[in-house]
Amino acid sequence: MRRIHFFALLLVAAFPASLLAQAKNLPGPDLVFLNARIYTGAGFSDEKPQVVEAIAIKDGKVLAIGATAEIQKLVAPRTLVFDLKHSPTEAIFPGINDAHTHLGGAGRTKLHIDLTGTPSLEAMLAQISAAAQAAPAGHWLIGGNWDHTFWAKPVLPTRQDLDRVTGDHPAFFDRIDGHIAIANTAALKAAGITGKTVPPQGGAIDLDKDGNPTGIVRETAQELVYKVIPPPSHEERLRGARLTMADALSHGVTSVQDFSEWEDFLVFEELEKSGELNLRISEWLPFIMPLDKLIKMRAHHPADDPMLHTGMLKGFMDGSLGSHTAAMKAPFADEPNNSGLPQFTQEQLDKMAVERTREGFQLGFHAIGDRGTAMALNAFEVARKDCEAQKGAAACNDLRDRVEHAQIVDPADIPRFAKLGVIASMQPNHLLTDMNWAESRLGPDRAAYSYAWKAFLNAGVHLAFGTDYPVEPITPYRGLYAAVTRMNEAGSKTYFPQNKLTRGEALAAYTQGSAYAEFAEKHKGMLLPGYDADLIHLDRDLYTIPAPEILGTKVLQTVVNGKIVYQPAK
């Protein structure tokens, strides 16, 4: 303990003396934690975590860190002080920055029929039946998050299955990954879908042996149904936003990089104006939107707003592994006639990437399959070469383009990430769901390079971690557990352990890596003077507890912008 005190005093002395002097002349910090175990985030990546006893916060920023005796000198009568009394279990960490969420969709999931975790088709239909009986006549039944890979008979549902329980209600439910959905006969009729309907590019409509729709629509074909479903009301979006923000904060998530609808962004603006926005949101815009509209949307809200702003452009290269729609270089091992559904031709993608990069947009492409990832890298390379021709190489060295998910990557493409400065934005929690069947989809050789977090780090690639909420729960602790163990939650199965991460590497990806991915690493992701005062007070020390105990982590306090925004009810 004497050593920690000495180190902490050095830390205080290392920061500008003028800062501490000014602090002592002001009315005092707003918030202080004393006698705590505080991980500042410095040293995570090289397994030399910096730990201090105390932290002072003022005006939404970290004012000072160090030993309790030093920080206590800054306390004023107005300061809110928490003394953790050297708790042997509790610890404070930088707030989690979730690099990939869908808050709007999560809100709708909470308000509509949530089929998450239904253990069988029969259980799914029973839940839908109950909702149908309670709904007004003809009312659309919508929701989703079903996952047939959990069922004893992992066979996709059909429209006839839904017809048995939906009565006169049109019904449409997307799969957990959002890349396929099931519609009943009434919904197909409302959308005008028949066996002769030609799906849009990048989509597919499953047909039975008689050439009639089964009810499964894939990728872009889902839009044929979505466009005839009444949109959510403003009040529904507000309710959903409040629920999802509360969910995030209760799990220690202080920032999100989000892809929701524009109407949801307007709701976030409304919540900010009313003082209810306690979660930092960087909102992505649709890559496929016309360029002139994207420029107007970017200009709609101040880019330097620390709580809410627009960020990168999100595009889709392919679908998902669970839906067999990921774009693969070779067919799926369990479907030898299927190589997935690319959403663009390379020529289309390259042209759009160049146009948008010229306008200063950061690009982020959803890519699950190795072909989808290669297409994304090809487009980034073309756009970068055009940028260098237009502006010179120096102006194009920090584009920070991203591949979202990067689940299955050809080993030859991993060095290309580093060469192009492309960020691998990944979600370790997906492994907990996918490891039960991923190898059967891919075969052992490709599976060995799936979810390859360590291989990316070893190649010098920046990692940014998130959850893909609501595809997975927004708790980051499942992902942290997966990253450091590559085991299922029961601890009974391991998936290619050579790609495990250390605690520090995984924590860095959830904090500093995510901050880097949104150009915020100079003020977010660590608890150092001048940084955003976003922190989480946990009931356990993520660095030292046995790995299985990470799954049970509870948040005791969440602080965003220097304010306590979550504490569990007592």
Describe this structure in words.
The structure is a single chain. This protein is an alpha/beta fold. Among the domains are: 1-94 and 526-570, Urease, subunit C, domain 1, CATH 2.30.40.10; 113-226, Diaminopimelate Epimerase, Chain A, domain 1 (Roll). It contains 21 helices and 24 strands. The strands form five sheets. It has an eight-stranded parallel sheet with strand order 8-15-16-17-18-19-20-21. Strands 9-10-11-12-14-13 form a six-stranded mixed sheet, with helices on both faces. Helix 5 (121-134) links the parallel strand 9 (113-114) and strand 10 (141-146). Helix 12 (346-358) packs across helix 13 (370-391) and helix 19 (476-485) runs antiparallel to helix 20 (503-510).
What is the CATH first-level class name of the domain at 1-94 and 526-570?
A: Mainly Beta
**Order of adjacent strands in the largest pleated sheet:** 8-15-16-17-18-19-20-21
Q: Give me the secondary-structure category.
A: alpha/beta
Number of helices: 21
What is the CATH T-level topology of the domain at 1-94 and 526-570?
A: Urease, subunit C, domain 1
Biggest beta sheet summary: 8 strands, parallel
Residue share in β-strands: 15-25%
Mean pLDDT: 94
User: Which value, in Å, is the CA radius of gyration?
Assistant: 24 Å
Helix content: 25-40%
CATH superfamily of the domain at 1-94 and 526-570: Urease, subunit C, domain 1
Which descriptor suits the 3D outline?
Answer: globular
Distance between the termini: 32 Å
Tell me the number of strands: 24
Low-pLDDT regions: 1-17
The CATH architecture assignment of the domain at 1-94 and 526-570 turns out to be: Roll
